[in-house]
Write a structure and sequence with these properties.
Order of helices and strands: HHHEHEEHEEHEEEEHHEHEEEHEEEEH
Shape: globular
CATH superfamily of the largest domain: 2-enoyl-CoA Hydratase, Chain A, domain 1
Radius of gyration: 23 Å
């Protein structure tokens, strides 16, 4: 091994050690004491030394350390991720362009394949026969096992309608499909009348300017209504955590609707202090297993304030504030720095929404939601 290569590996080890120390001290409360940290460093040094001296091949140090970075960060929780330069560029641009995608909603835990938990209607994924419960084991012959959820979602998207090869695990069967990318959602919400109600407000995503558009286009129509409004949050999996309280604020006003709990118990209150234009309007909210993040915040708060009854299946509980930390080499860390809790103290993180009227996973048709809604209305 050349002196230059030896120095590069040793430098990489030092960087990795410092990176581990940074994570433990700054973002992983309760993981390590001083003694435990030293033990972790000793173990890391031993592993690196064994790889350097005894592994059958010499490995590229930069590639090895990128894998180590991904392993450390991606294992923290379902939302945290290490983003290399290419992934960071795509992540930074994803709100600026009309991205093409296949139309699946995924959930992924570290070390497992991403699982389909939702499928957009009339999407390329639906037309190709992809089903809820399928696992995506490879994308363009690249294994998804060690990808983060963020990286997997970014890989499925693109600015061009370019097909992607997907390997699917379904029970004891392996399928290989080529799926096109298309524009899936054009508007953040849609509205349809429903007899006996004030209508169905379908929220597709909670990105701005969704609530501003809602105020301009629908608020005046709903002010005079007295029948329950159905807010359909099924498969609303994306959005901005600052946009969610704005939707809540149409229906309630409060000094605090909950808080993000950060490291060492620091709390950032979430406010809804504007006039609630629709405070007297009864609400029924529909959720499913693909109701994630900001949509869970909306449903949880309105349920907690007894402003809404919720129909559906329990949600997964991924309401967390994230921050992006750029690194000097052009990569970045996307870290969860606060988890949302309701005023009652119940954290949505990892617990999710418990519906008032629970449906079975196998029976989530529109007609079932509609029937349960009118059953609920008739009992009031």
């Amino acid at each position: 091994m050349t002196t230059k290569r030896t120095r590069l590996i040793l430098l990489t080890v030092c960087i990795g050690t410092l990176f581990l120390f940074f994570l433990e001290k700054s973002f992983l409360p309760g993981i390590s004491s001083g003694n435990q940290t030293h033990k972790s460093f000793d173990l890391l040094r031993t592993v690196v030394q064994l790889i350097k001296n005894d592994y059958v091949e010499e490995r590229n140090p930069s590639e090895t350390m990128e894998g180590a970075f991904k392993g450390m960060v991606n294992s923290l929780d379902v939302l945290s991720a290490y983003l290399n330069k290419d992934s960071l560029t795509q992540y930074s641009q994803q709100r600026d362009s009309k991205w093409k995608e296949i139309g699946v909603i995924l959930f992924k835990r570290y070390g497992l394949f991403p699982q389909v938990i939702g499928i957009a209607e009339n999407s390329p994924a639906e037309k190709k026969g992809i089903k809820i419960g399928d696992y995506l084991s490879a994308l363009d012959n690249r294994s998804t096992l060690m990808m983060s959820l963020v990286e997997t979602n970014l890989y499925l998207r693109g600015q061009e309608e370019k097909p992607i090869k997907i390997k699917i695990l379904r029970e004891n069967t392996t399928l290989e499909l080529t799926v096109e990318r298309k524009s899936i959602i054009d508007e953040p919400f849609s509205f349809s009348p429903e007899k006996g109600t004030s209508g169905i407000l379908k929220i597709h995503s909670l990105y701005p300017p969704g609530t501003s558009d809602f105020k301009k286009k629908l608020l005046f129509k709903l002010k005079s209504q007295t029948a329950p409004l159905i807010i359909d949050l099924r498969s609303c999996s994306e959005g901005d955590l600052q946009e969610a309280p704005k939707l809540v604020n149409f229906f309630l006003k409060a000094d605090s609707i909950g808080y993000f709990e950060k490291k060492e118990g620091t709390k950032d209150l979430v406010l809804c202090k504007e006039k609630a234009e629709l405070s007297s309007l009864p609400l029924i909210i529909w959720v499913n297993q693909a109701t994630l993040g900001p949509a869970e915040l909306v449903a949880g708060v309105l349920q907690d304030f007894k402003k809404a009854k919720i129909i559906g299946v329990p949600t997964l509980g991924v309401v967390a504030k994230q921050e992006l930390f750029p690194l000097k080499d052009g990569s970045a860390l996307l870290l969860s720095t606060g988890v949302f809790a309701l005023n009652s103290g119940r954290k949505l993180w990892g617990q999710g929404i418990k519906p008032d009227v629970k449906l079975e996973l196998e029976d989530q048709s529109f007609s079932t939601y509609r029937k349960k809604t009118f059953d609920l209305i008739s009992t009031k």
